[in-house]
Amino acid sequence: MECVNTVRRIMEGLVKDAYPGASLVVNANGETLINLTVGYAQLKPVERLMRGGMLFDLASLTKALSTSLIVMKLAEEGALSLSQRVSELIPDFSRTNAGASDVKDKVRVWMLLSHTSGLPAWLPLYKSASSRDELINQAVTSFLVYEPGSRVVYSDLNYIVLTALVERITGQRIDSLFQEMVAKPLNLSKALYNPLTRFSRDDVVATEYINGDALVGVVHDENARAMDGVSGHAGLFATAEDAAKIADSLLESYRNGAFLTRPSIKTMWTPWACGESCYGLGWQIYKRGVTTSGGDFLTDGKAFGHTGFTGTSLWIDVELGLTIVLFTNRVHPSRDNRRIDYARPIIHNAAVSCADKLTYH
């Protein structure tokens, strides 16, 4: 179809300006309409062409595709309650390095998921932590910087604390929880933490060029790297195809209850907290004119997604029946390239328009 070629030309036109390479998968009601790969998986120190089926560092998409799903599954099983105090599940959470903190006792599990806990947006914990356990402990005992529930401040620390929470409840690390609770039920063969344990460097897209080499298969996020590559805020790698499988399963869950029950997914995608943008539990809720990463044609309040610092994004529009996965390696060779911010809406608009033509015409 001509419109698919148009999308390809747009994506190719952005190579080397907005990103070295990209992979796009667009599904309508579980059927693949568009699957395109353009550009380069790596430019420095050697060039590698992008191929279909390569693994990307998902960065903060980990929050939506791993952590939020694990928490919702545990809630379904009765292992935790979304309204439970975090300090009931992690007693150390109620203290800081200055002693006990009554205000931290107010933080509920849903506040971590919706970025309303009061924890700071970010801290360079990797600079002082000498181990994964120490970094997690520093996050758990961090000071709050605002009253819990009073406003939205997007924070990686929320999801590092959630890492501690799910690991304490289950006695398993979050990478094994992801395999057991998400990857196996959905038959995902290329979605995992620390991908070099199963795949070669040639199967993985490069991120930043640092100290004379590119990061390949090693998580880009510094705090996650200090956590041995395994965290709830970053660390997951996947192909666009496997990410689309997760998205399709959630669309089906929204309609009929499948991977998650209908009550669970509606709870996850309810707007729990709204600042400039609205958040559900681990997911951003699309608002036209505000949520620029999704373009202009998704359905207000009925599309749910997330972005990742490395140049990844995923959107699910339950009204249109579309799942859109756009993965790029925009931080290669340098994180200083921010032109992905204008590239994303251009590609999404073209993809949604094309999907409309392919589906209804």
UniProtKB/TrEMBL annotation:
A GO term, aspect molecular function: hydrolase activity
Keyword tRNA processing attached: no
InterPro entries: Beta-lactam-related, Beta-lactam/transpept-like, Diverse_Enzym_Activities
SUPFAM superfamilies from the UniProt entry: beta-lactamase/transpeptidase-like
Keywords in alphabetical order: Hydrolase
Residue ranges annotated for the Beta-lactamase-related domain, each copy included: 8-342
Matches recorded under Gene3D superfamilies: DD-peptidase/beta-lactamase superfamily (3.40.710.10)
Pfam family name, one: Beta-lactamase
Alphabetical list of PANTHER family matching this protein: BETA-LACTAMASE-RELATED, BETA-LACTAMASE-RELATED DOMAIN-CONTAINING PROTEIN
Protein name: Beta-lactamase
Species the sequence originates in: Caldivirga maquilingensis (strain ATCC 700844 / DSM 13496 / JCM 10307 / IC-167)
